Amino acid sequence: MSLPLIDLSHISTPQDTDTTNLYSYTSSPSMVQSASDWLHIYPKGIYKLLMYIKKKYNDMLIYITKNGN
């Protein structure tokens, strides 16, 4: 069985088509601001993600590496 080829070159985003976004952005004052104004540091988030993966995938080995400077 072969899978169909999906051409992603014609897909656009709401920003591309000048439509309004259907989401809103909120930030908690407890979150630390990063270099990007839309990105915040939330250490508890990665902890929760790792605990979810541990439970769902039977404590599999995970490598966390640094990306960037």
From TrEMBL:
A single GO molecular function term of this UniProt record:
hydrolase activity, hydrolyzing O-glycosyl compounds
Record GO biological process:
carbohydrate metabolic process
- Pfam families in UniProt: Glyco_hydro_1
Q: InterPro entries per the record?
A: GH, Glyco_hydro_1
* Family membership: Belongs to the glycosyl hydrolase 1 family.
The molecule here is called Uncharacterized protein
| Gene3D superfamilies xrefs | Glycosidases
